[in-house]
Amino acid sequence: MGYYHGILLLVGIFITLTLSLNLINGFCGQFSLGHAGFWGAGAYASAVYSVFYALPLPAPVNMLIAIAVGFIAAAICGLIIGIPCLRLRGDYLAIATLGFGEIVRISIMNTEMVGGPRGFINIPHLANIWWVFAVAFVIALFMFNLKRSAFGRAIISIREDEIAAENMGVNLFNSKLFSFTIGAGIAGIAGALFAHTQQFLHPSNFNFMWSVIILVMVILGGQGSVTGSIIGAVILTIVPEALRYAGGTVAEWRMTIFPVLLIILMMAKPEGLFGAHEISFRKRSEG
Amino acid sequence: MTQNYSPLLSLENVTMKFGGLTAVNDVCLKVFPHDLVAVIGPNGAGKTTLFNTITGIYTPTTGRVKFSDHDLKNTKSSDITALGIARTFQNIRLFKNLTVLDNIKLAKHTRIHYGFWSGIMRTKRFKAEEKKIEAECIELLKLFGLETKKDFYAKNLAYGQQRKLEMARALATEPKLLLLDEPAAGMNPTETKELTELIHLIRDKFNIAIILIEHDMKLVMEIAEKIFVLDYGNLIAEGSAKEIQSNKRVIEAYLGAEVNL
User: Is B93 within 8 Å of chain A by CB?
Assistant: First the structure.
């Protein structure tokens, strides 16, 4: 697997991840700090399936099953966190998801079956770059259409004003739980793709820092914008790598330069690159 | 006024306590279909709290709120909207970062008849339904003179227009009862006059009952067929504008009683 190929693969996986967090954070306005936990839960669950329990089926079918396993495992985790936390208003979800991310990582560390701290090896190579981008495309389409349907509108109204949303007949808890569970599940799909392209998983792949990076991708692109999420994911995956090639001092200082660039950007455009907008060729009149 | 048909909304001995504070105390009132009534009272009399108990934001400590035949106890705010009670807020609560049209479309939430997957797959049914809703919403915006602003963000509207949009949005939920919380707050006399006509028009066109909270007495006296007066959570008077204006307790509540020194 070449270097550029590897980067491109990560771009695709991060697009899916960012889109999934955008549903929770950007659309619904719920603050989740444990997205890497759902990603990890999906990755490990799907890998457990394909390593230990794989059915004698053609590889693409097994990959589809692995994706389903990843989705379900992460979505169940989402339900478990979401049901108690989403009933409350405020920052409880952020705290609970923060804890959840760590629980997942530490549980994996201590599970001998999946290699514990040595990492999970010998995962079959069931997916490739086409899988990754096909899934990213389907998820992007899903998000686009969701945004333009009544359910999407209801979810977005919760971000804007919970009390008014409820007064418009939106069931707050159900809508929040829906976006949280589906968002978690899609992160699980990204996990399945990650496992079956990298063929190796390590608990540190899913630590708190990655949750923050995914969150930064969402915020950079603009909370609530599907195209923004895609571009946020692309930029944040490519720029740190591109800085390696800037040569000399820049390459050495890239992990300092990169955050500074982010800070400058957030000062210049606090709503993110796109705000809640999509890239569109239609002209809008905005007063 | 004699009414021999059944009330649309009835509050039976509703009391709302917050710890030691009784915001609404043992209030009974009835509102009939097609009524246009006002709730007035000095600041802190419990008017908005009363609205909040009706719309399910608060559950009354004791007493019952009945809407048509439904007891609203343990009914979620969102389900109350589906039953047919809509409201506006004293401090405007629009979806500021959404367009005017999206604000109204959102209010159609409980009246939408397509499934989740229909929306995701963009089926014929989805498209037909969305088209129908959009047409209805634009019709509503026209009534409020906002159709040219439909692509504006709600936050970019002038204050008076935001108030109107909030009313339009409440109407879009297709209510049988509309609660207006200080619709004339911050409006100039011309806008208030326009609002008076608009409230009449809404009542007749949509054939709904309206309860409004208002401090602008000119507006209240002009349009309300019946007035309820609250003071420190107690319902101290009810009746026509004339009756209220000459009611001794109401005058005391607003201006204070004479004291013999």
Answer: yes
Q: How far is A225 from chain B (nearest CA, A)?
A: 13
- A3-268 to CATH, choices 3.40.1130, 1.10.3470, 2.40.50, 1.10.1060: 1.10.3470
What residues of chain B, 136 to 175, have a C-beta less than 8 Å from chain A? 149, 151-153, 156-157, 169, 173
**Sequential pLDDT tens for chain B (261 residues):** 555 578 999 999 999 999 989 999 999 999 999 999 999 999 889 999 999 999 999 999 999 999 998 999 889 999 999 999 999 999 999 999 999 999 999 999 998 888 889 999 999 999 999 999 999 999 999 999 999 999 999 999 999 899 999 999 999 999 999 999 999 988 888 989 999 999 999 999 999 999 999 998 989 999 999 999 999 999 999 999 999 988 888 888 888 877 777
Q: Which phi and psi (to 5°) does residue A120 adopt?
A: -100, 115
CA gap B48, B185 in Å, rounded: 14
The alpha carbon of residue B119 is apart from the nearest alpha carbon of chain A, in Å, by 5
ipTM of model: 0.87
**Each residue of A154-177: b (16+ CB within 10 Å) or e?**
bbbbbbbbbebbbbbbbbbeebbb
